[in-house]
Amino acid sequence: MRISPEIETLISRLARLPGLGPRSARRAALALLQAPETRLQPLIAAMQEAARSIHTCPQCGNLDSCTPCSLCADPQRDPSVICVVESVGDLWALERAGMHRGRYQVLGGVLSALSGQGPEDLNLAGLMERVQSGVVEEVILALGATVDGATTAHWLQEKLAPYGVAVSRLGHGVPMGGALDVLDEGTLAAALSSRKVL
Amino acid sequence: MEWEDPAIILRRSPHGESSLLVRVLTRRHGVHHALVKGGRSRRQAALWQEGNLVMAQWKARLPDQLGYMTAELVRPTASFLLDHPLALSLLSSACSLCSEALAEREPHELLFAALTHFMGALSISAAEPPVALYFRWELILLRELGYGLTLDHCAVTNVRDGLAYVSPRTGRAVSEEGAGEWKDRLLPLPSCLLDDDDEGDPAAWLSAARLSGYFLQRAVFAAHHRPLPAARDRLMTALYRRAEGGTSGQDEEERV
């Protein structure tokens, strides 16, 4: 049976999204088309609204409908502590944890010699501006525990050294509920080397 | 087509949502590309880090296909180095040079053994990394690529002691006496490149970096109209900083 080109286009567009392959895109397209009033039209409206109103915050790189973003504009958040993350997804993860009450900086990537990503590709302007203003007392480097993440953290630490701000990083090690015998050797080695005295 | 071989991970790049394209240096099969299904998953992410030593299994229908790779972790080198900037720079530089300078599927058993030895030493002493050993490894890389330097006797006087320079044209060592009025045109040869027990100092490391960097650039990378890898340049910057400021790895840790 031949599927109409409009539906084929919809399926192929959906299949490009993360988490969806051609098969699941076909199911999603069918679910949307079978309930146009309750699923398709509201989704179209939500997507149009998001495309129209969501922007990248010029200060921290977060995605939001207001400029600066609601996290940068929130007077309840501590402006003296900035948490540096690689992507907006990491920012959302930290917000879900609800532990950080300061502000953020989204780098948009990490230094990678092998992928050719250099310092000029990182979104650092907002961070340096805030650090130079003298308001910031601590910068938390919440970057991945990878070679590139650690290289970026060391590079940022050197870049921030002249401004006298405290620079810290997230701990590496055993996850909550993690039994030692099922952990990989790399995580165990990192946990051992970053152990702390009780 | 299937083989199993020890391998050092040189490079990883995302492929799709959960897979990786990896480039590894294996003992008997040289540099190899392969697809790792689920390589970005939580279970496998720690394994596929640059510098880790693994026992790799490669499988493909035909030998010239990309193939699939799975691996067991042997030594998690990257995990030991995350807090040590100079050690990380050495690791990234070694991986970049192997990744960019070596031809694919050309075995370099001696180079693999030397790199494994260096990575092992790096894991053990990440706070005070074996920098001289790294530059001795770069000389092995040059030799494996066919551009080995002759550092066992003087090209002018034939003596074996007091070697202090290397001719940038021929790559042969020259003694202090043999250099005479030409020494300004020669590259200084630090003793840590000749003596395995000499760990050298930041000034000697810089001389070693300039010497091997000169020949890597001229013989290997210029031939492909490419500069030295960015990771090698960053290592130079780190060594300059060490030589100027004299900060040790311990000092840098305390600054965090």
Features:
heterodimer, A: 198 residues, alpha/beta, Dna Topoisomerase Vi A Subunit, Chain: A, domain 2, 2 domains, 4-stranded parallel beta sheet, two-stranded antiparallel ribbon, 8 helices, 44% helix, globular, B: 256 residues, alpha+beta, 3-stranded antiparallel beta sheet, 8 strands, 39% helix, disordered C terminus
Question: What does it look like?
Answer:
The complex is a heterodimer of chains A (198) and B (256). Chain A is of the alpha/beta class. Chain A has 2 domains: 5-53, Helicase, Ruva Protein, domain 3; 63-169, Dna Topoisomerase Vi A Subunit, Chain: A, domain 2 (3-Layer(aba) Sandwich), CATH 3.40.1360. Chain A is built from 8 helices and 6 strands. In chain A, strand 1 and strand 2 form a beta hairpin. In chain A, helix 2 crosses helix 3. The mean pLDDT of chain A is 91. Chain B is α+β, with helices and mostly antiparallel strands. Chain B is built from 8 helices and 8 strands, in the order βββββααααββαβααα. In chain B, strands 3-2-1-4-5 form a 5-stranded antiparallel sheet. In chain B, strand 6 (163-166) and strand 7 form a beta hairpin. The A-B interface holds A 18-19, 113-116, 118, 145-147, 150-151, 154, 157, 161, 167-169, 172, 184-187, 189-190, 193-194 and B 10-11, 13, 17, 43, 46-47, 49-52, 73, 76, 78-83, 85, 88-89, 91-92, 95-96, 99, 229-231, 234, 252, 255-256. Chain B: This is DNA repair protein RecO.
